[in-house]
Amino acid sequence: MIPRHGAIAALQKFLSKHADNRRIHGMTIETITRLARLVLDTNCFVYNNKYYQQIRGGAMGSPFTMTLANVYMWEWE
Predict the structure, then answer these.
(1) How does pLDDT run across 42-56, given as a tens digit for each residue?
(2) Burial class of residue 53 in the structure, from the number of CB atoms within 10 Å of its CB (0-12 exposed, 13-18 middle, 19+ buried)
(3) What's the N-to-C CA distance of the chain in angstroms?
């Protein structure tokens, strides 16, 4: 499980390093960061017929979470 704040910070640093004029394929780093937070903050799941909102880490098996974890680990190394 990756820490959300650390992962977002690593994502921003990664994007800044690889951006042209603070943009990635036309999207600003701020927009990508906001979308990343949206994905992390709106993950819900059902357990024993009750709905829960995930408040730590990211969704298991999510392609975005796997990519974000790789960016975080790249920065951490």
Answers:
(1) 888 899 999 998 888
(2) exposed
(3) 16
Percent of the chain with pLDDT over 70: 100
How does 28-45 read in b/e, with b if 16+ C-beta sit within 10 Å? Answer: ebeebeeebeeebeebee
Identity of residue 58 = G
Domain that holds residue 59: 4-76
Sign of the Cα torsion 22, 25, 27, 33 reads negative
- As a whole-number percent, the residues of the chain with pLDDT over 90 amount to 65
* Tokens, residue 39: 């994905």
- Partners of residue 20 on adjacent β-strands: 23
**Total domain count for the chain?**
1
Say if residue 7 is exposed, middle or buried (CB neighbours under 10 Å; 0-12, 13-18, 19+): buried
